[in-house]
Amino acid sequence: MSQLDTVIRSRRVVTPDGTAPAAVGLRGGRIAAVAPPGARLPAREEVDLGEAALLPGLVDPDVVVQAPGRPLRECYLRTAAEAVRGGVTSVAVAPSAVGPPLTGEAGLQEHQSASAGVLLHVSLLGAVTDRSTPADLAELRSAGAAGFHCSLSDGGAPGGGPIGDAPLRKAMMEVAAMEAPLLVHAEDAGELAPVPPGGPAALPSAVSAARPARAERRGLERVIAAARVAGTRTHVSPFTAAECAAVLGAARAIGVALSAHTCPHYLCLPAEAVPEGSPAFRCRPPLRSGANRDALWSALLSDADCPIRTIGSGHRPGTGVWAIGWTLPALWTAARRRGLDLAAVARWTSANPAELLGLADKGRIVPGAEADLVAFAPDAAQTVPGDDPGPYAGRTLTGRVERTWIGGRSVFPAPAAAPRARAAEHGGPLPASP
């Protein structure tokens, strides 16, 4: 074998075949070899992780980068820095209520320009609204949209509002013809109550009551009815109401191409622990009870063909949770308590979302795949800084991202000479590494 760029050795390399000691050789930004741990692999650089595990980079399929009042380029830079610190190497950016819109080619190009050259891989999801035409969707797809996103309630494209049943069915048929996935925020607008005075940051318990689990059930029924006719690959994101897991399973049993996405905060944080007055816990749907959290885990673990296929941050800076940097340790903290292994976590956070988005060369440690990798110390404890803007502030988590590679290039920790330049790009200092 000719000389490799880098060889990474670990006693715990997570591949599709399981977790075992191995040596992973990188060349030209891709994985060139997965060999026994003692194999002689000539390379310019050797990295021995010891007991730290080597995982495929996380693929987060439903992320918003825009924060209200901030330039789009700055938002991409900051999100990318947070993501790679947490082992996330690819994101699919969803439409945001704060814009710029992803409803047409112009908006898509604005995001493409703003994300050019950031640390991680970026895919874009085109917005589907009541006003979307077949030409709009075709334009988005030809301009590079990896898939599409719509909402039955709020949180979609600027001014888009909730999509109705007839436009949803029509859009699903167009998306199915393009062989693209459709992500749907499935809370039904008709089941939501007005948020009381004080807003979501001031009254999280009231917001929870205003967005009940029955809104997800009614929304799922609408999505299933449309997807059954259209045959569209439909991914419900986020899925939180465990009582609806049987509805998902029944739909799949009759051949509906339906799957779902959830987030670590729904699996880790019960609503009973949410402090009144904290903006860090606002999310749509809201956090649900401890009993729902346990039932969600039961659904996730009940069946190898569970329809809950992907887990990602649900990152929504300024309008929701700020969490992309803590996806892996937060999920691992909860998964480990339930006796799960890193291979299960990698399926949910890497392989399955890459498959959903059609990223065939990502999400797995196999020869030929892109060398997007994460060194993760699964036994290390860390305390999230108390000033972190997300819901894990002050909590002790198990597991720490030690290093992140994208295309074989080390991007976290940053080279010693880079922090000043990176801070200048962000308009201020970067968040401290945990």
TrEMBL record:
SUPFAM superfamilies: Composite domain of metallo-dependent hydrolases, Metallo-dependent hydrolases. Residues 55-411 form the Amidohydrolase-related domain. This is Amidohydrolase family protein. It comes from Nocardiopsis endophytica. The lineage of its organism: Bacteria, Bacillati, Actinomycetota, Actinomycetes, Streptosporangiales.
